[in-house]
From TrEMBL:
Region (Disordered): 1-21
Protein name: Putative TetR family transcriptional regulator
Source organism, top-level taxon: Bacteria
PROSITE patterns (UniProt xref): HTH_TETR_2
Record domain HTH tetR-type: where: 19-78
Pfam name, any one: TetR_C_28
SUPFAM superfamilies per UniProt: Homeodomain-like, Tetracyclin repressor-like, C-terminal domain
Length: 205
């Protein structure tokens, strides 16, 4: 599940469990990153987590350390989302229409879009974080490779990256019909059929 922008926490400044307090700090930093990480400070994180300012510097000596842990937290959430994608694909008929519907639904979730673009932006700004940033892409390729060949899976994942970035910069994501047209072309290359054909795994077997 993605970080929900502006989520609230109970007003409980005295968190006794050190691990709970640390986790609250990480989650707060992750929220702030998805809202615009350029303004991230120890003070803002402490305010969002509802903990004393000294707690953030106690657990994370530098902002870089805190940012890395926050990004790891976001990456773990994308793993859960990939599990949902895999299950949805398995439950579908594998047609371009079904895949386009799943992709379009994904793009309608602003929190998911923010999470993924936050991870990519971090990898661009800090090369040492690129493995974290690539986690979604690699995971999506692995999921898609269960249904199509690896090359097509990579191309579809690249397309998914592109429409995700588009959605992050526009009020509305690209329309479902356009997604379906591109998906049909990509699947045609995988199945060796014309773009107008709809071929599912069931039909192939």
């Amino acid at each position: 599940m993605s970080v929900k922008q502006g989520s609230t926490r109970p007003n409980s400044p005295q968190v006794r469990n050190p691990e709970d307090r640390r986790q609250r700090i990480v989650e707060a930093a992750a929220e702030l990153l998805t809202e615009g990480g350029g303004r991230l400070t120890h003070r803002l994180v402490a305010q969002r987590a509802d903990v004393p300012l000294g707690s953030t510097t106690y657990y994370f000596a530098t902002l870089d350390d805190l940012v890395e842990q926050a990004l790891q937290h976001l990456a773990v959430q994308t793993d859960a989302e990939l599990d949902e994608v895999a299950q949805a694909l398995a439950d579908s008929d594998g047609s371009p229409e079904a895949i386009a519907a799943l992709m379009h639904e994904h793009l309608q979730d602003a929190d998911r879009v923010r999470t993924e673009t936050t991870l990519y932006a971090a990898g661009i700004e800090r090369p040492e974080l690129r493995e974290i940033s690539r986690r979604w892409f690699k995971g999506l390729v692995a999921v898609l490779s269960e249904f199509v060949d690896t090359e097509t899976a990579q191309l579809m994942a690249v397309f998914a990256d592109g429409v995700t970035l588009h959605a992050s910069l526009h009020d509305e994501p690209i329309d479902r019909a356009a997604i379906e047209r591109v998906t049909r072309l990509l699947l045609a290359g995988s199945y060796g059929t014309s773009p107008d054909s709809t071929v599912t795994e069931t039909e192939k077997s």
